[in-house]
Design brief:
Number of helices: 10
Number of strands: 3
Helix content: 55-70%
Number of domains: 2
Radius of gyration: 27 Å
Largest sheet: 3 strands, antiparallel
Strand content: 5-15%
Order of helices and strands: HHHHHHHEEEHHH
Oligomer: single chain
Distance between the termini: 84 Å
Length: 248
Amino acid sequence: MTMDWFPGIREACNHWRDAPMLQQNLEALEQTLDQNNDACIDCAKTMVEVVCRVIVESFHTPLTPLKPVQETPSLSDWLSAAVRALKLGDIRDEKFKKLVSSHHKLAGALNDLRNQAGPASHGKDPYLERLAIHHRRSAVLAADAIVAFLHKAYLDAQLDPSSSREPWARFADDNALIDAHVGLMVETDDEGLTSLRFMLPGGDVLSLSIEVSRLLYELDRVAYVEALNAARGILIPAEEPPTEEEGE
């Protein structure tokens, strides 16, 4: 079997490489595919669900709840929540709506196949015949199509920087706008606490108090260690040369 069956899944997993459960599911999908194990169908279905959950978590807030309300949400519930989070249903183009609907149908078919033949999630008849290779391939291809569709839409979506887990670089345009119009000053009070003062357009000042050690630790560990070594050098007095009497 070839790993080229799920390039969209691999791309999404590489994007969210800090999500441990997603990475673990990718490993399981790769292993079961390599072993010609029908459990790859379970992994394919789970991969779609986990990606949906990542997307929903990225947009869910108490003011705009998006998580399914069912006690045990189905794959369809999570896919619907992801579509709402990405606002794919707001696009009025009828052809695009049919495309979204086709992915719902694809997810439903994948879920049905997993319920019927996936050996890892439910106990099956021990004498049930294994699926053919094209069945496993179809399941993985279906999952890859859904994940790729959602991931591409996610990359085009406008994220909320106050709750997003995306790295700083994801907000390149916003970062450039801030860098161009917001100044920075550093002040230290009588107790030695450092304050960063951000000079906002219009004259307002946004103040952020933070310890120098915390700032270095969070932003640059190498610089933190270098500063620590320099500070330790102050605490160790230089050894004074012996006097003439001591030398005698």
